Amino acid sequence: MKTTYRIILTALLALAGTLTTFAQARKPISSVPYTITKPGNYYLSRDLVVTKPGKGGVTDCITILANNVTLDLNGRELSTTLDSGVGVMTHNDASSIRVFNGTVRGFIIGVYLYGNTNFTVEDVAAINSRDTGIVAYGSASVVRRCRVSGTGSGAQAGGAFANGILCPLPNSVIEDCIVGNFATPQGITITGIRCFDASARISRNIVHGPGAVVANCVGIDAKGGTHRVADNQVSGFFTGYDLGTSLYRGNDAPSCGVKFNGGTNLGGNQ
């Protein structure tokens, strides 16, 4: 019996040591702008606001210059008082970046992950972005359970654009997101969700547009490859789904001028 207790105690001590090491490995971010230069787990210790411009007049809030980085927004908010910058962004050829659990507000782009592969954005609210809410510009990227609202606050009519979520490279997944409440003037190009290279999966998203009478507006743009588009709801766009050669099933498009443009109908669409 004593041997059994000794074994259990040893296991518990080992687990405690592992948990302590993990806790120590998490690095707090308590001021911005902040640059991550080493792999690891980072988290916000409080709400953070960019109030002063950086070099060249543009200040990105958190910049990631390493691979294998996890950034836990920790239920906090990143915001800016300036008319510039990106909330969370990568440079160079980044890979294996995860950003989750918080809010980015008021930047030109809320989250902009650019590089090679394996980007994940989960449970992030991108609010009042001037141009685009979330960009995951890497193959095998995942955007899941995110909310994008108020995009286009700085757009100007005549060639400008407002995008909710962009995943341009192959094998991306966008699912269970809500995109809407575009703050845009007449005459700009508005896209709720866009994938335009090879095969992506776009599922169970809700996308609200500015109204079907507004031209140059597409709820889900999946015409750049053969994507799988399933169980989404798009409303209030000039074109609900622009599909090209994509496959679609179980989607709804209330109050859209053109519900489905192109694509292969696999049934259950309304």
Q: SSE layout and pairings?
A:
Blueprint: H1 2-25, E1 26-29, E2 34-36, E3 40-44, E4 48-50, E5 62-64, E6 69-72, E7 77-80, E8 86-90, E9 94-105, E10 109-127, E11 132-139, E12 142-144, E13 147-149, E14 161-166, E15 173-175, E16 178-180, E17 189-194, E18 201-203, E19 206-208, E20 217-221, E21 228-230, E22 233-235, E23 239-249, E24 258-265
Parallel strand pairs: 1-3, 2-5, 3-6, 4-7, 5-8, 6-9, 7-9, 8-10, 9-10, 10-11, 10-12, 10-13, 11-14, 12-15, 13-16, 14-17, 15-18, 16-19, 17-20, 18-21, 19-22, 20-23, 21-23, 23-24
What can you see in these coordinates?
By secondary structure, this protein is mostly beta strands. It is 9% helix and 48% strand. The protein contains one helix and 24 strands. It has one helix at residues 2-25; strands spanning 26-29, 34-36, 40-44, 48-50, 62-64, 69-72, 77-80, 86-90, 94-105, 109-127, 132-139, 142-144, 147-149, 161-166, 173-175, 178-180, 189-194, 201-203, 206-208, 217-221, 228-230, 233-235, 239-249, 258-265. The longest helix has 24 residues, at 2-25. Mean pLDDT is 87; it is low at 9-14 and 16-24.
